[in-house]
């Protein structure tokens, strides 16, 4: 049995409008008091009839929409009268008016768009109404400047990026401006995701999770922060576990970057880096086994990786590493590339890794894989030194020792990996 389309649309609009009316009633009971009961616009039946009204008026005159627009302005006028009274009581919210307009739009939406659009609108309204307390919780902790930075990056990505030429127009650089900036946007996006998760979703979940999420965007900075905390609080197994876990996450992060920019290299790194990450997590689990973490608020790396200054510096380093790598590979070959990878590991390895993943150099895929492994290993040695320097030898020697072990093992695997493959 097939329902008439008009009948189906009418039933959907009525049910959605009625259910939203129930949600509004629930919202009012949670977030308002009895004294303000009369200052809201309608109840369950009102929302149901508004949805039906929008459907009928749009159906009657879907060409000029005069009746439909008249209904819209009538609802707005009624609410304006109510709102003027609310202002006298210092009540300025227009939330339920907006919800009613969305309910009114169901009639037009369901007759002009696929059914899933109306269902999506209904789910969105219900979700937002029920997430009021959660939204307020996060809004209080939001640093507005960070989202201003995000807006600038979206502008540069969505507006400027398509305007950049996708041809090799810069001398000595084997990539187009479009692909260079695209790579910067992708890396910044990955780092920003980890940063947001740590700062706003897991801000006070303990040192171990600080290491996990910190390693997703900067294992080096996370190591410094945690080492300083170890020096201040005294050596703790949980901080050692967090430092080791940050480096373990670094291996997983490099796998993701490699798979995104050069799938062949990503497949080559998959096995050794997963083994190294699992080894690191196993050592961290050993330190966590008999540890009871105190209820403290660990520091986080409170530096937005999407800052424009950071992005432009990264772009500059990316291009510089591409030029240096091209020069080294042409004049010194495989040995020169390996030495360069080791030296670069004592700085920020992302620009170097990205340059050899995306550049067109006279080197094989195996040599690229080996260079990434050497760079990751020497970067672990740098973090071991940081752990000793910022956390003191007495209080951070355990994490520093395991970082050094991971560094030596990673470099050793890299040096023998070409023969293994």
In short:
This protein is mainly alpha-helical. Helices cover 78% and strands 0% of the residues. The chain has 16 helices and no strands.
| Morphology call | elongated
The helix/strand series, from N terminus to C terminus, equals HHHHHHHHHHHHHHHH
User: What Rg is obtained from the alpha carbons, in whole angstroms?
Assistant: 29 Å
The total count of helices amounts to 16
Give the class from helix and strand content and strand pairing: mainly alpha
Roughly what percent helix? over 70%
Low-confidence stretches: none
End-to-end C-alpha gap:
63 Å
Q: How many structural units, i.e. domains?
A: 2
Largest sheet: none
The proportion of strand residues reads: under 5%
The total beta strand count reads 0
Average of pLDDT:
79
What does this structure look like?
The protein has helices at residues 5-31, 44-60, 66-88, 95-112, 115-130, 132-141, 144-160, 177-201, 207-215, 219-233, 237-261, 263-288, 308-344, 349-358, 365-391, 393-420. It contains 16 helices and no strands. The protein folds into two domains: 5-137, no CATH class; 143-420, no CATH class. The termini are far apart. It is 78% helix and 0% strand.
Annotation keywords:
mainly alpha
Architecture blueprint of SSEs:
Layout: H1 5-31, H2 44-60, H3 66-88, H4 95-112, H5 115-130, H6 132-141, H7 144-160, H8 177-201, H9 207-215, H10 219-233, H11 237-261, H12 263-288, H13 308-344, H14 349-358, H15 365-391, H16 393-420
């Amino acid at each position: 049995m097939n329902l008439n389309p008009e009948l189906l649309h009418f039933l959907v609009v009525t049910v959605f409008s009625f259910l939203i009316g129930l949600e509004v009633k629930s919202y009012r009971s949670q977030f308002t008091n009895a004294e303000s009961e009369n200052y809201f616009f309608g109840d369950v039946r009102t929302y149901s009839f508004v949805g039906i009204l929008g459907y009928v008026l749009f159906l009657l005159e879907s060409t000029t929409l005069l009746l439909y627009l008249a209904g819209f302005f009538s609802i707005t006028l009624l609410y304006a009268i109510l709102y003027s009274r609310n202002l006298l009581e210092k009540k300025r919210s227009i939330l339920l008016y907006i919800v009613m307009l969305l309910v009114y739009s169901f009639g037009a939406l369901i007759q002009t768009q696929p059914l899933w659009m109306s269902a999506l609108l209904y789910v969105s309204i219900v979700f937002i109404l029920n997430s009021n307390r959660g939204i307020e919780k996060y809004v209080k902790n939001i640093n507005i400047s960070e989202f201003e930075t995000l807006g600038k990056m979206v502008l540069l990505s969505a507006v400027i990026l398509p305007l950049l030429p996708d041809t090799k127009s810069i001398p000595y650089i084997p990539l187009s401006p479009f692909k260079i900036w695209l790579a910067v946007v992708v890396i910044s996006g990955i780092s920003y995701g980890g940063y947001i998760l740590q700062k706003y979703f897991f801000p006070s979940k303990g040192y171990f999770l600080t290491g996990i999420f910190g390693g997703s965007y900067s294992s080096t900075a996370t190591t410094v922060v945690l080492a300083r905390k170890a020096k201040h609080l005294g050596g703790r197994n949980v901080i050692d576990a967090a430092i080791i876990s940050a480096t373990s996450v670094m291996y997983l992060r490099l796998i993701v970057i490699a798979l995104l920019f050069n799938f062949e290299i990503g497949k080559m790194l998959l096995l050794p880096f997963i083994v190294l990450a699992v080894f690191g997590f196993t050592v961290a689990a050993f330190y966590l086994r008999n540890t009871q973490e105190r209820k403290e608020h660990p520091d986080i790396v409170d530096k937005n990786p999407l800052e424009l200054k950071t992005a432009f510096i990264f772009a500059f380093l990316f291009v510089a590493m591409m030029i240096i790598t091209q020069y080294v590979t042409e004049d010194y070959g495989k040995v020169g590339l390996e030495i360069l990878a080791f030296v670069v590991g004592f700085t920020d390895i992302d620009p170097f890794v990205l340059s050899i993943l995306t550049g067109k150099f006279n080197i094989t895929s195996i040599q690229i894989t080996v260079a990434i492994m050497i760079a990751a290993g020497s970067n672990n040695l740098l973090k071991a030194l940081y752990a000793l320097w910022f956390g003191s030898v007495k209080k951070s020697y355990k994490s520093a020792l395991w970082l050094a072990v991971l560094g030596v093992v990673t470099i050793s695997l890299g040096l023998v990996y070409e023969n293994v493959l």
